[in-house]
Amino acid sequence: MRASTTAPAFARPARARRASPKSRANAGVDVPTLLNNGPHARATRRWFYEDATKSIVAAVTARERRIKIKSEFPELNVNGDVYRVGTTLELVRETAAALARDGLRVKICVQRSMGQGVFQALPLSLSGVSKLLGMMDWEPGTEGMIDPSGGIGAADGEGADCFILVQPQNIVGYSVLPYIEEMEAVVGDKPMIMINPRLDDVQSAGNVMSVRGRKERMDAVAAWKEVYHFRLLYRKPYFFPIYGALRFAYYENEWELYKRTGARELEQYVLLGTYPSEPTPDEMTKKIWG
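Above: the chain sequence. Below: its structure as tokens.
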């Protein structure tokens, strides 16, 4: 794919604010390079698994009870052509094992088909995931602590100390949010973790997820605390080249903006600044392209 020759398209304008300068207190992290190359090296995947898992464990330890993460390096970005379901499952296994080592019984939950009869549907990126989870090997010593057979709904809100929801998604004609809310009522004060949820409204001819009730749906999603965020920055609508990255980790509590420089063996991600909250598209555009 070729890069766009038009102006950066991070979208809406916004009131600019100054990013904190790079300092000794936060020199950034060594973001893996060559992310345009696929499949990713095993060490690259491992870096992202450990980075996200560290934030999840820290948040659960701090008694956060409704948390979510967004990790969209290329092999976890379902909008790209290099998405790899095995990478999603490896991240889930890493997270589940870390929680199990802390003494928590973990249930891994994947939404089931929604709808009735011939109108049942399931997001393509979740097709076969439940079956694959049942075939996976788990870290020695944690097998009895991890139940990989959970779904999303009231019937699945028992039998564990912690619940991992794998990529819950709305689809045309059906919303998974009511199932999540029913499950929350049963789970109560136990932690629930959403891995890469996609809960934006999806319009349909049946008027599902219409304007009516939209605020309530948005509030329900916003109530879950984002404890980890990583995404690459491109000039939309292209996924090449990569111009930078945005990262947030719960245990550091700062948003970090990186610019990609160099090529091949000289490639690196340079920390441009940190923010107390997620920078706007306009702020990132100005910082990276000046």
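Residues 10 and 281 are 5 Å apart (CA to CA).
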